[in-house]
Amino acid sequence: MILELETCGGGTYQLPTLLSWELDLTSSVPCDSMTAVCPYDPAMADVLPKAVRFTARQDGGIMLRGVVDAYEISLSHQGLLMSLEGRGMAALLLDNESEALTYARALLPEILENHVTPYGIRVEKAREVSGGSYAVTSGASQWKAVQGFTRRFGGFDPYFTREGTLVAAPLWGSGRTLELGNTAPLLRLRKREQRYGVISEMLIQDKSQRISHRVPNQKFIDAGGQRRHVLYMPRSTAVDRRYTGEYQIAQSALEQVEVTAELSGPFAAMPGDRVKLSLERLALSGQYEVIRSRSRMDGSGERTELTLSVR
Fold first, then answer.
1. From CA 45, how far away is CA 279, in angstroms rounded?
2. Which of 187, 202, 305, 306 is nearest to 253 (CA)?
3. Which residues of 208-224 are buried (b: 16+ CB within 10 A; e: fewer)?
4. What is the side-by-side order of every strand in the sheet holding 159-160?
5. What whole-number distance in Å separates Cα of residue 142 and Cα of residue 95?
6. Mean pLDDT of each 10-residue bin along the chain, 311 residues long
7. Shortest CA distance to 129 belongs to which of 102, 158, 162?
8. Which of 161, 162, 209, 250 has a CA 20 to 30 Å removed from the CA of 94?
9. Are the C-beta atoms of 26 and 46 separated by less than 8 Å?
């Protein structure tokens, strides 16, 4: 792994050979992140305070480009070391708040122009998404402003590429599939299935119009689930109520089944890839989506931890 820093003055600096590193890739929220440790060089004294961006490369390809958050210099029995922390470019949208805005008729290009491009973030593959009235509340992050719009009118979350580009289109279904069978180089595997947190019914209350709207999760109800949530939405439309109820139910079920697999070697799969499991000894099979890929290198070698779910 090679880690290159960009300074606020436009300069670049390549860090010495890394002693350990970790890249945690999610493509959206929680934000992609990076940590790295290398020997400290006195030449870094002028570079580190000015470092604003980083690019992590592996075998000539960009694995993550993002924002430098912090650095630390330490002296111990391990020697003189420098550790660096950073996040993907989504950090710029998560860290910056939007002013309150109301769009009479919202269009994706307008949303991106107001909430993304001011931060120097490149956008590609933007879908044609438009809708009716859309409001961004004061204090909402710029990421929330964009994500709320694409969810509401497009039914998807945008995502960031490893190069730091925002893609205004669905992530899931990249076309790449990793097959893990009985002979796969698995170091560890865990499957967790939980009922806690899954919503069986959303009751949407509009007190100003004295309207109640029930949205059931029939599949979970049929399985004996009972967890009703009540949400108040003033002056809402029937479409708003149905969408909100269905969205809350869908979000509650995303982590109902989660598989964590650790494999030898880095970057075994990326968020959006699929994993096909065929593990007879665990009676575990089926198709899953990679929602998180954490690759690391330390004294134990290189490995990848994949978090899998059903989308």
1. 51
2. 202
3. eeeeebebebeebeeee
4. 123-124, 166-167, 159-160
5. 8
6. 96 96 91 97 95 96 97 95 98 96 91 95 84 89 94 88 93 83 91 91 87 91 93 79 84 86 95 93 91 94 94 74
7. 158
8. 250
9. no
